[in-house]
Design a protein that fits this description.
alpha/beta, 3 helices, Transcription Regulator spoIIAA, about 130 residues
């Protein structure tokens, strides 16, 4: 299964999905103009990964900001991660956040999907 590596920018998050390493990472900002065009391949990759996941999967999410259209896709990704967790029981999610709005959204995702995750507040920059 081919990994997905995307270098992020001011509008698009960095992506590192690597089945061989059992590593799934999203980092940065997501205010992409075509959210379905960006996120559908990621969701498809996760669906394929679910068929034959690594023995252990590590998920690191560092989303400092995402717009409404991106939030729908981030929620969809969380649901796919829950499916993988239910199948393997060996999926660790660490989700970093900067502000209260992101924290509240993560809590909603956690409550709705029942995906176990560790929420980590980033240290404020000085």
């Amino acid at each position: 299964m081919e990994p997905i590596h995307i270098v992020g920018n001011k509008k698009m998050p960095s992506v590192n999905f690597d089945a061989e390493k059992g590593l799934i990472e999203l980092k940065g900002r997501s205010i992409v103009e075509n959210a379905p065009g960006f996120y559908e391949p990621l969701v498809e990759w996760l669906s394929k990964y679910e068929e034959s996941p690594a023995k252990e999967t590590t998920v690191n999410i560092h989303m400092e900001y995402f717009n409404t259209s991106s939030s729908k896709w981030i929620f969809t990704i969380a649901k796919k991660l829950k499916d993988i967790y239910d199948k393997t029981g060996n999926l660790t999610v660490k989700w970093w956040y900067d502000d209260e709005d992101i924290f509240e959204y993560i809590e909603i995702i956690q409550k709705v999907t029942k995906l176990p995750m560790e929420l980590i507040q980033n240290e404020p920059e000085e």
